[in-house]
# Entry
Amino acid sequence: MRTNRPLGRGVRAAMLGFCLLSFRITTAVGVAFAADAAPERTVLKAAHIFDGTSEISKPNGVVIIESGKIVAAGSGLAVPAGATVIDLGDATLLPGLMDAHVHLTMEFGPSWSQDFVDGMLRFPAEQAFYAAANAKKTLEAGFTTVRNLGGDDYVDIGLRNAINKGLVPGPRVLAAVHPLGPTGGHGDGTPFPPGRVPQGGPVDGVCNGSEECRAAVRFQIKYGADVIKLMPSGGVLSLADTVDAPQMTQAEINAVVDEAHNWGRKAAAHCHGDAAGKMAIAAGVDSIEHGSFLKSDTLRLMRDKGVVLVPTLLAGETVMARTDKLPPAIAAKAKAAMAARSDMFKNALRLGVKIGFGTDSAVSLHGDNGKEFALMTGLGMSAGAALRSATAVDAELLGLADRLGTLEKGKIADVIAVAGDPLQNITTMEKPIFVMKEGVVVVGGH
# Structure
């Protein structure tokens, strides 16, 4: 049995020496470690910079980045000593782009019938691989943030989480899970004969009456929704509904928007029809998607209440190129929406409606998002305003303006570059030569 005995002088001296030596070693290692951990600075240079704070660009663009954040951005800034410099030459630096309306978990092909069969037979785990491929294409196209407005089997939530954990490359994703609408509406899917396919309920986004609609919001949030999507009017690529007719009652729309806001989520309303648009605006939605048939008085209401229009022009162009391969009912709706949407967009511009950037990608090919810019400018929008729609305006709509959307000190280092000057040639936005997300180079820079 051991007893506690006082330590001899020699032992105490040895221990004291050991402690002093350990302190010196630890201190030396700590100093060396601190020196090694000093953050590295990366400097991006290009002939121009469009920082998103206005509709103009400046010459001699410089963005200084440290630890995934922007330290400084502007024209002709001095390069810090020891920084890694990426000189992109005759190009324009811009904030990472945002697309406020995508569906990364799916993509329509040339055959509507084949898409229908494939969608019914494909397992969710398999579909997740397609979603990951779509996300990669979107990021490489310069879109570092997207709002995914609806998907099936929670693939959007799994994709978002996998991207956040670094398992797959892709933009940061704000996901809606299931869009909300009534039985037989645009969000309710195909009208299969009763009993052949189980009918969806609030957990699937299908809701009737204000209480079911509140429950549907809560279900989407329970399973990870960052934003709530609702369907006040019919849609184009569905068989059971009229494209411009209201599908939800005012009480149902009010319940969805109120519940979403109670939970700190924004509400995006898929809405082609004018009557349904008025109802959605009265309920306090944050954005109206598509808006094909909106009239001038409805657009004025949007302007006065700060509701953002996300016009998704590329979706209409894509569908119109395929009308001969679509079921007749869908083709007729597409033609009607397309005939109205250009005048609607021009009126929205004229009246000063805030316009965000969204493509409805999945209808169009993922990675082609940048083609929306030329469609916007082709209908009268200035190039600078179009660029801001995909940067500062979308950042505000998505609730990310404190972190993203402009090239300013303290913002996350999402930066892209395109050849030349997009204010002179907007089509250069269709293929960036450089993409950085959170300070990490994704495309170019080598």
